[in-house]
Design a protein that fits this description.
heterotrimer, A mainly alpha, B alpha/beta, C mainly alpha, A: mainly alpha, MetI-like fold, B: 7-stranded mixed sheet, about 45% helix, globular
């Protein structure tokens, strides 16, 4: 009984609903969250401060986030003197397209896995899981050879294939999990009303899974946006570079242009942050709004 | 409609490609250069293409030498390597072992190049690269505002260093994480990492022991170097004026000129008092290497390009723009070098240097020396233990090269 | 290379357009193929699901099957720098590689079993903290409150930031002189730690970095799962007099399971195979911070032991497969997934 009480109070702190939260408790929660936010953001702030330091000084004894001689010169340099915008554009174009393709592929396949017990379903699920277990370093050499043989080098075809497909196994697993929580009664009700199988998919399942779809899209986007290994294999010509490849051109053998490097890194994180902020409304489920019976 | 348009677009592009490839010879050049050297590289390409209108040079930048090495191996494996490389000498070892580059003995007149440069890429009795520039050696760079005259030998270094080092300033800084900074001292103690045959590693030697003890003393007895310092830390300290001297390579000189201007001085790393020898930093440089099997028009174009870069005019241009020492023997006597203090100091150091071994086994040496050097500098191991462990490591590493 | 201008935009769009065309054509072909074969010829009732999946399966096969077969073949060779173009391919060589993996050091000093145990430790520590942190934060955020969107956006920073940048930033923070961590330690009166030289502390540094990186992801997944649990369940339970703990145990956990289990399994797999963090935090290439996959990478690309590392990769894969299967079996985690 005593143990339960302790667990109870810990759980109470974490889980109670807002109408029973005392103002004090709310204050504590905010405090905890603020500290966590600080921990989450601080290393990034330090990167910002390097980008504001003139002269490519990576290290400094001062802890100031904004250095005394702060200047935006590195940002100026990276945007106007280097083809940074071109790298961003390339990355953006290819990431958005492949994120969508991946989402389409995954959402349809996950639906199949969730709603039908077709032969090969369980081995299929296992296979998808095992693809995640393969150490990526293993695949570099053979994929390069494959790409050369099929002329996929120096075109976006090879890269798009790799990006669209590589996040699909994970996406299928997550989406299937979400689809499984949507009761079949909903679809059956719709079918009785005359909707086709795919109709229920579009009109019922997809809208109810917006949090999952948003997560999958975000995940695909981030994986493709940050990827370096595949891009390095497939893209040799500089005018096709995505930003990870572009940024590496700033890192020489001994001398790294730290100012430009960090400035680029910060700028590159911006689209992702925007995407996150924008997607937060999608991440809120419409599921709890009375569509499920108790 | 859209489909037809895109198909047309694709066809037009294809035709364009075909047209280009029939008219010209296309050389694919991979370069390890970055920043200013890259710009010079680019301008060379452009000038060359104007002189030889049938040739186009497509340059791919592989700024990190590790990446260049890995990618060249993978590309060769896939059957699609570049034609010509502009890279560092120690790539010769792995590439020769994998048989993916051509020997250059019969393809060029090698007599006009500096001998030590050539020796760096001499393996199995043949030469495997054509030098472009010389150097890459470590030197003693000092801040004249903090120390007017650099020490001539290590006893003086310790004495002067102790006086100089205070809470704000270190007398000497260097990259304490890479064995590249240790080997000059090893040379000063008359040691070598290889036996006479050039491929058997000899790390467990009295000379290595003496070197490790010396470094340990520098840090813990004389206390003239920071407790922990990697490349960037040393670089920052020197640029911020918190270090009187730094041991760094010729590539860093232009950066320090920018930060210190006329206060920058270049000298030889101080003589080792115990042996009376000058330390022998490794010299190497940048080289052209040709992909195995290159022939016909491509080979001719490559040869022309190499000759073009080896002319006196281009070599001196490189000296002026990049502060690098030339590979062409004749260019070394040019007043451009003999009258520039910084270059003169660099040449002075290079003369007592020794060519960096580039055999395949060298990698094992580097890998084995590094953790032991770190452990000694962190006072985790004694120098005696370290040399024994070094030798054990390197032997097991060489075994795996089979 | 030119800066961003109309040429570049046009070029990229053209490329992408062409690529989309290929993909579209390919998918249409596949769908027609399946429709005809399964629908018309076999009249299978599973035509629709297969049509839904075929594009994804095809792509995955291409990206995975060929490379895997190549590597399997490579595992039976002794390809390395000295045997680059010509090498022996035989069963005996394969066995020899296998023997080498288990008896000789992988790189210089460290052997297979110590790498394995270190990888297991790494995985365990990280996943536990990811879960705890993610669950805690998700629970805290799962209520209407002011600034929730901002909190979520900030807390997600570690995941949103490109991993290479984040790891580089942390590597800087562990710097002896200039890193934030040691500066804090000094200010608190403690001895600064040699993060980059000491084997133990380097491992700790890698763990700290990876935990920081991995919590947001868990948080988002769990938050999404929590949001799909209707409030009415909790209200009903409160009315019935259930304690918080009981509510958590009987409502929250089971309803989170379908989402949590794949997330945990994937978390285990990704952490086990995490390359970026142990590789880059290990600034001085200490062998004592290597886990299985970083050892694999070094063997393959720094020592060029291609045949050996292909065999090594197979072994790593099998180990991970066994671990994941055991976990799944133990938690019956996939029971609901199969229903």
């Amino acid at each position: 009984m005593k143990k339960n009480n302790k667990k109870n109070s810990v759980l109470q702190f974490f889980t109670s609903r807002s109408r029973t939260d005392s103002p004090f408790k709310r204050l504590v929660i905010h405090l905890v969250l603020i500290i966590c936010c600080f921990i989450a953001v601080y290393p990034v702030l330090r990167v910002v401060s390097v980008s504001l330091r003139p002269g490519d000084r990576l290290l400094s004894t001062s802890l100031a986030i904004i250095p005394k001689d702060a200047s935006f010169f590195s940002y100026y340099r990276i945007i106007f003197e280097k083809p940074f915008l071109a790298w961003l554009w390339n990355s953006l174009a290819i990431t958005i397209t492949t994120a969508f393709i991946g989402l389409i592929l995954a959402s349809t396949s996950a639906y199949a896995f969730s709603r039908w017990k077709f032969p090969g379903r369980i081995p299929g699920l296992f296979f998808l899981l095992t693809t995640q277990m393969i150490p990526a370093a293993m695949l570099v050499v053979p994929i390069y050879i494959l790409a050369v043989r099929f002329q996929l080098i120096n075109s976006y075809r090879g890269l798009a294939l790799a990006y669209s497909v590589s996040s699909v196994p994970f996406s299928i697993w997550i989406l299937k999990g979400y689809y499984d929580t949507i009761p079949r009664e909903l679809e059956e009700a719709a079918k009785i009303d005359g909707a086709s199988q795919m109709g229920t998919f579009y009109r019922i399942i997809l809208p109810l899974s917006t949090p999952a779809l948003a997560i999958v899209f975000l995940f695909n986007f981030i994986m493709a946006w940050n990827d370096w290994i595949m891009a390095r294999i497939m893209l040799q010509r500089e005018n096709m570079f995505t930003w990870p490849l572009g940024i590496w051109t700033l890192a020489g053998q001994f001398r790294v242009e730290w100012g430009a490097f960090t400035a680029a890194s910060i700028l590159v994180a911006v689209p992702v942050m925007i995407l996150f902020l924008y997607s937060s409304k999608w991440l809120i489920s419409g599921l709890t709004l009375g569509s499920v019976k108790g | 409609m859209k489909k037809i348009l895109s198909i047309c677009l694709v066809l037009v592009m294809l035709l364009g490609f075909v047209a280009i490839s029939y008219a010209k010879v296309n050389l694919i050049l991979w370069t390890k250069e970055g920043e200013e050297a890259l710009d010079w590289n680019k301008s060379l390409n452009e000038e060359f293409m104007k002189l030889y209108p049938d040739v186009t040079i497509e340059m791919v930048k592989k700024t990190n030498v590790e990446i260049l090495r890995e990618d060249f191996l993978t590309a060769s494996l896939a059957g699609a390597p570049p034609d010509i490389l502009w890279t560092v000498s120690d790539h010769a070892g792995p590439f020769v072992a994998a048989e993916i580059i051509e020997p250059v003995d019969d393809l060029f007149d090698l007599n006009k190049y500096v001998e030590s440069s050539l020796n760096a890429v001499k393996l199995e009795g043949k030469y495997w690269g054509v030098p472009i520039s010389n150097g890459n050696q470590l030197m003693l760079l000092y801040n004249k505002k903090l120390i007017a005259q650099p020490p001539k030998d290590t006893d003086e270094l310790f004495k002067v260093g102790k006086e100089l080092t205070s809470d704000d300033i270190y007398a000497l800084v260097w990259n304490q994480t890479e064995p590249f900074w240790m080997v000059p001292w090893l040379g000063g103690f008359k040691g070598k990492v290889f036996a006479e045959d050039g491929i058997t590693p000899t790390l467990n030697t009295p000379e290595m022991l003496a070197t490790l003890k010396f470094l340990h003393a520098m840090k813990f007895d004389a206390k003239i170097i920071p407790p922990e310092s990697d490349y960037d830390a040393a670089d920052t300290l020197f640029k911020e004026g918190k270090a009187a001297m730094i041991i760094n390579g010729d590539w860093s000189v232009s950066g320090y000129v920018g930060a210190l201007g006329d206060s920058l001085g270049v000298a030889r790393i101080p003589k080792v008092s115990a042996t009376g020898e000058w330390p022998k930093p490794y010299t190497s440089g940048v080289y052209f290497m040709l992909s195995q099997g290159i022939s016909g028009d491509k080979l001719k174009a490559a040869q022309d390009f190499v000759e073009f870069v080896s002319t006196m005019e281009k070599q001196l241009e490189m000296v002026k723009l990049l502060n690098r020492l030339p590979a062409l023997k004749a260019a070394l006597d040019d007043p451009l070098i003999t009258e520039d203090l910084l270059l003169k100091g660099a040449a002075d150091q290079m003369v007592v240097g020794t060519p960096m071994p580039t055999v395949l086994e060298m990698r094992c040496n580097w890998d084995s020396m590094k953790p032991e050097m770190l452990a000694v500098l962190a006072d985790i191991k004694t120098p005696e233990e370290a040399v024994k462990d070094m030798q054990a490591s390197v032997e097991s590493c060489v075994k795996t090269l089979e | 290379m030119e800066a961003l201008n109309f040429e570049v935009i046009k070029d990229t769009l053209g490329q992408l357009g062409g690529m989309l065309l290929y993909i579209l054509l390919g998918i249409i072909l596949l769908e027609i193929f399946i429709y005809v074969i399964l629908g018309k010829i076999f009249k299978s009732k599973y035509t629709l699901p297969y049509m839904l999946m075929i594009a994804a399966i095809f792509g995955i096969s291409l990206l995975i099957i060929y490379p895997i077969s190549y590597e399997i073949r490579l595992a039976f060779t002794n390809m390395s720098l000295r045997h680059f173009r010509t090498y022996t391919l035989s069963w005996a060589q394969g066995l020899k590689n296998l023997k080498l993996i288990f008896t000789e050091p992988i790189l210089k000093n460290v052997k297979f079993f110590s790498l394995l145990s270190r990888t297991l430790l790494w995985t365990g520590v990280n996943v536990v903290f990811h879960l705890a942190g993610g669950l805690g934060l998700a629970l805290l955020l799962n209520r209407p409150m002011r600034g929730r969107g901002i909190y979520r956006a900030l807390l997600v920073f570690p995941w949103a930031i490109p991993q290479i940048i984040a790891v580089l930033a942390w590597k800087g923070e562990f710097h002896f002189e200039y890193g934030f961590v040691n500066i804090m330690l000094r200010n608190l009166g403690m001895q600064p730690i040699q993060w980059m030289i000491s084997p133990f502390w380097n491992f700790v540094a890698a763990c700290i970095t990876n935990i920081w990186l991995g919590i947001p992801f868990m948080m988002i997944i769990i938050l999404g799962g929590l949001q799909s649990i209707p409030l009415e369940f909790y209200d009903a339970a409160e009315i019935d007099g259930a304690s918080r703990w009981n509510q958590f145990r009987t409502i929250t956990l089971p309803l989170l399971k379908p989402v949590l289990t794949p997330a945990i399994v994937l978390g285990i797999i990704w952490t086990f195979n995490n390359f970026n963090v142990p590789y880059m935090i290990n600034a001085n290439e200490l062998e004592s911070t290597d886990i299985l996959v970083t050892g694999l990478f070094r063997a393959a690309f720094e020592y060029h032991r291609y045949g050996f590392s292909a065999a090594f990769a197979m072994v790593i894969f099998i180990v991970l497969f066994v671990i994941a299967s055991v976990y799944i079996r133990m938690t019956h985690g996939l029971k609901e997934a199969y229903e």
